[in-house]
Design brief:
Distance between the termini: 24 Å
CATH superfamily of one domain: Winged helix-like DNA-binding domain superfamily/Winged helix DNA-binding domain
Number of strands: 2
Structural class: mainly alpha
CATH architecture of one domain: Orthogonal Bundle
Length: about 150
């Protein structure tokens, strides 16, 4: 998605190009892009000059929308899914203190991922530019200063 967001308006990109430049297997990308197209986040263009482009502006697509589209329901742990199942306390989810913490963490992550758009991610420095700074630290720092 970020690869597409970096492209000039009107430019379509083939999966082969994304695969090569981002180091992601083509077969994996094809499955992901199929989900993203069904979800209305990317457009598929057929024929000569075909490929993919964003269906909306990068400022209109949140990280949580993309994750939920690809993962069907983004969750940190199984106990915070629509069909919760505790991986620690096999008898009852209510007897696990960690499930409450995971629930709170899921809520906070969802808040951050909802307000973080592709446009926000484009503003972050690449982790390859400064190997001492991780992408997660960049995101946390950016979000801390904008909150």
């Amino acid at each position: 998605m970020l690869h597409l967001a970096r492209q000039p308006a009107g430019r379509t990109v083939m999966i082969d190009e994304i695969s090569e430049q981002e180091g992601i297997p083509k077969s994996f990308l094809a499955k992901i892009f199929q989900s993203l197209a069904k979800g209305g986040f990317v457009k598929s263009h057929r024929g000569a000059g075909g490929g993919f482009s964003l269906a909306k502006g990068p400022d209109e697509i949140s990280l949580l929308q993309v994750l939920n589209c690809v993962e069907k329901a983004f969750a940190l742990q199984r106990c915070v899914t629509a069909a919760p199942k505790c991986v620690v306390a096999h008898r009852s989810r209510e007897s696990c203190a960690l499930c409450a913490i995971f629930g709170e963490a899921q809520s906070r992550v969802n808040e951050v991922f909802t307000r973080t758009t592709l446009q926000d991610l484009l503003k972050l420095r690449s982790p390859l530019v400064n190997a001492d700074t991780s992408a997660a630290a960049d995101l946390a720092n950016t979000l801390h200063h904008t909150s």
